[in-house]
Amino acid sequence: MRELVYYAAVTLDGFIAGPDGEFDAFLVEGDHMEGINARFADTLPTVAAEALGIDQRREVFDTVLMGWNTYTVGGLDSPYRHLRQIVFSRTRTADAENLEVTAEDPVSVVRRLKQEEGAGIWLCGGGALAAVLADEIDRLVLKRQPLLFGAGIPLFGDRPYRPERFDAVETVAYGSGVVVTELQRRRAAT
């Protein structure tokens, strides 16, 4: 069965963007970029990967999920056209290559996607969508940035207090201060 992976950059104080969606303070240069781009090439916008000569094979992810605000942040009609892109919005529409905008319940969509053949499903953002899908997330890959925002969009939006355990799979620390941690959901024994 396919996994839903929430792969995101996050500040030390738990924000994936500033109060107005700002993300320009995140480190996009440094020794962490080579490792991240090699392992997670599918998460680069298609035009960026093409410009950098990075091959996107759809081996890690073949589908990306986004809320409307995350979709519009880069200003591209089809930011990840190498992937199947599903954008959740109850009020907006868009038409672009490999892009589907849906008002369908995100949990229903994810459960259906998990039953299909394919590579991983990348939850790109935002925090409100992550809060809705929290129980469906199988893995977290967090690129912890050596930054404090003080305010902004939380990693899991307004998710209510309900502790859930994830186990560390791998952690890689870079000289830039970025630490990439992969965690897997701890499932109850059956």
What does the model show?
It is a single chain. With 190 residues, the chain is of the alpha/beta class. Helix content is 19%, strand content 30%. It is built from 5 helices and 10 strands, in the order ββααβαββαβαββββ. The strands form 2 sheets. It has an 8-stranded mixed beta sheet. Helix 3 links the parallel strand 3 and strand 4. The protein is globular. It comes from Microbacterium algeriense. InterPro entries: DHFR-like_dom_sf, RibDG_C, Riboflavin_Biosynth_HTPR. This is Dihydrofolate reductase. It holds the Pfam family RibD_C.
List the helices and strands and how they pair.
Layout: E1 4-11, E2 15-17, H1 32-39, H2 46-52, E3 61-67, H3 68-72, E4 84-88, E5 99-102, H4 106-115, E6 120-125, H5 127-133, E7 139-145, E8 153-154, E9 166-173, E10 179-185
Parallel strand pairs: 1-6, 1-7, 3-4, 3-6, 4-5
Antiparallel strand pairs: 2-8, 7-10, 9-10
